[in-house]
Amino acid sequence: MAGVAFGAGIPTTIGVIGGGTGWWVALAFVLPAALLLIGVVVAGDYLRWRGTRYRCTPERLEVAFNLVFHSRKSLPRERIRSVDLTANPLHRLLGVAVLTIGTGQHEESGRSRIKLDPLARADAERLRTELLHRKEKEAAAEAVTDDHVLATLNWQWLRYAPLSFLAPTLGLAAFGALFKVADWFGAQKGVIHWAYERFREFPLVVTILVLLAAALVIGVVGALVLFVEMWWNYRLEREPGGTLRVRRGLLTTRSITVEERRLRGIDLVEPLGNRLAGAARVDAVATGMRQKNDDGKTDYHTLQPAAPLGQAQRVAALVLREPVSPTEAVRLRSHPIAARGRRLRWALVGAALPVLVLVVLGLLLTDVLLIIGAALAVVAFPVAVALAFEAYRNLGHGITGRYLVARSGAVRRSTVALERDGVIGLVVKQSIFQRRKGLATLTATTAAGAGAYSVYDAAPDEALEFAETAVPGILTPFLASPEASAAAERSRA
């Protein structure tokens, strides 16, 4: 909270001083307000800590708050799906950690989770072990050895960090932050004037390319720093008692636990940049696992960061206890040519819309927008066509052993291996355009991971056959002939 108050007070203080009022106004108003805010929050956290009690019995976890208000939560231990530890730098300095207990309910409000903040680090580890149905003595006796370590950080993986879309995003965000800070000091016009003086002798295209190159360099550095912070000391371990544990983090340490009995498969994710470099990351498809952490990030279910494809396949096989990863063992069936046409049409429409907007605005306002629109068209249409062909090549589905496998995506290719026993429903959908082209989309619903995984634009007969083979019995009435269905109805009558 001190950081929040500091971040809010800095621009306010600068704005007051920049307005010519002076330091004494900042000291008289801003500093006391910041101290009051910090004091109120610290007092609130202290009272919450003093009033919170918990108890773990063989059947239930109970958490009670008794101070001004009274509340009590009682959670059956069989409903506990995840127990994770997080410690930011201040927590680590004080020897405490935050324990988050999840029930697997997909609620964004956080009411499906119990958070004990903070606990002594030793108490947090002990409670995590106890809640995961493993006795502390057994855990101590069966210490993790090299045989239990499935993967550790290889610093050569660092080269894949700048190849994601995060790098240009961070670069553009840096320029935005620069203008925001300049605005605090009332120097935004000065920064623009300085940049104009440096580039006024260069053509507009050169100026844009130089700025984009600078943003890319900043983004690459930011992506490297972020990777180091997130994946420092990364270890994927199989612990005694049937749990997978991911430990990582430099400043903020994270410990994420997945019970193997909750695991329903894996998702091999290959963003475009990583795929071109031959890399992929491994995500867990598990019941009761948060798809986002408290910061809104989606890396909470990642078992391994981007690594060489062979390494990712090896880790996937180890996680699933299979000799070969299902995503590697099966030869995927390709999809009809009509699926390629659908992707081409959508890609061309997506590329044409911004070009059309620029052309209209250029005719109404300035010829510069017409030039930008023409340049965008030269780049966008070939890229759109290439991505459409890539998206079609990536379509595929198949079955191997206990798993059904589905692959799709161009910018972000995803190959999911889902346990057939984990499928709770199958949905076959056809839009009016799909019916005209003889295509259908099959969606397998599950209680794990994203909740649904689709086989896009397959031939209807192949989709139904695939569904019947993957989960026999669910779609049998749709596959039987009318005579067989009538006979079945008469026999039931």
Automatic annotation (TrEMBL):
Spans traversing the lipid bilayer: 23-47, 163-182, 202-228, 346-365, 371-392
Keywords: Membrane, Transmembrane, Transmembrane helix
Occurrences of domain YdbS-like PH (ranges): 49-130, 392-468
Pfam families noted in UniProt: bPH_2
PANTHER family recorded: UPF0699 TRANSMEMBRANE PROTEIN YDBS (PTHR34473), UPF0699 TRANSMEMBRANE PROTEIN YDBT (PTHR34473:SF2)
Protein name according to UniProt: PH domain-containing protein
Lineage of the species this protein comes from: Bacteria, Bacillati, Actinomycetota, Actinomycetes, Pseudonocardiales
